[in-house]
Automatic annotation (TrEMBL):
Protein name, UniProt field: Succinate dehydrogenase
TM regions (residue ranges): 27-47, 87-110, 150-171, 177-194
Keywords: Membrane, Transmembrane, Transmembrane helix
């Protein structure tokens, strides 16, 4: 008997349902919670652009570090340097935030989160999205996601700066609550950065023979373990950096003022 591989027109058509989804669970909670958390973070980050209370010796708010102008308090300058000189008098956050913000906005985990929470593309698995077409990350503005690796290099530098700030606070005020908060934040910021998919690929992702590169293989194994926790580290570090930044500003404003602050 002769068999044919041709399919009927009916079989080539996709199944159509009138319902937006057949899911019966509360699938909408994840995009809703994501939207609320990210919106709160964006609102807070915007507020820091206009707030000048970012330094309370020896603490400097993470969103404003490093401070690179002569208008910055002397103790807030990175290694005492002021490469932007006297002409720059605006908030240091305007110079700094674009780097970690760009790293997070192009991060693989955050893409999934805000694609669902803000763009509803799609809002959840097996749920129809409201958009009539999808071009992926091949067109503007989503094609800008491809520069994630370059933001990773900048995020490494920012992580090192925050670690340095924590070390300075640890030396000058070892028993301070702010010191503990800055240390915890620096740890999670750097763990989040190192758990990045780009970091895993750069470490040894292109090697064909791990046996010929034992050091890079060990580094790749370490980063791979972190990468498995990338989502958790992304969320935890977002709260630690916002919490540390807010704490320093409250101390600088005199709102928080108690022993070991």
């Amino acid at each position: 008997m002769t068999q044919t591989t041709a399919e009927s027109p009916a079989r080539r058509q996709r199944a159509q349902i009138k319902e937006r989804t057949l899911r019966t669970d509360q699938w909408w909670r994840y995009p809703l919670v994501t939207f609320l958390i990210f919106t709160a973070f964006l609102v807070y980050a915007t507020w820091t652009l206009f707030d000048s209370s970012y330094f309370a010796a020896p603490y400097i708010a993470p969103f404003s570090s490093p401070c690179l102008a002569t208008s910055c308090p002397e103790g807030a300058r990175l290694f005492g340097l002021a490469p932007f000189g006297d002409w720059y008098t605006l908030s240091p956050s305007l110079l700094i935030l674009v780097l970690p913000a760009g790293f997070r906005f192009t991060c693989y985990y955050y893409r999934k989160a805000y694609y669902r929470g803000f763009w509803l593309s799609p809002p959840a698995c097996a749920v129809n999205e409201p958009h009539s077409k999808y071009s992926g990350e091949s067109r503007f503005p989503l094609i800008l996601q491809n520069i994630h690796r370059y933001f990773f290099y900048a995020a490494i530098l920012i992580g090192l700066v925050l670690a340095w700030d924590a070390v300075l606070a640890l030396v000058e005020k070892p028993l301070g609550l702010g010191t503990l908060i800055l240390v915890i934040n620096a740890v999670f910021i750097n763990l989040y950065t190192l758990s990045c998919h780009s970091c895993r690929h750069i470490t040894a992702g292109r090697l064909n023979h791990f046996s010929k590169h034992p050091v890079r293989y060990r580094a790749w194994g370490f980063v791979s373990k972190l990468n498995a926790k990338h989502q958790q580290l992304a969320l935890i570090s977002m709260f630690t950096v916002m919490g540390a930044d807010l704490y320093v500003r409250l101390v600088a404003k005199g709102i928080v003022n108690f022993p070991f602050a």
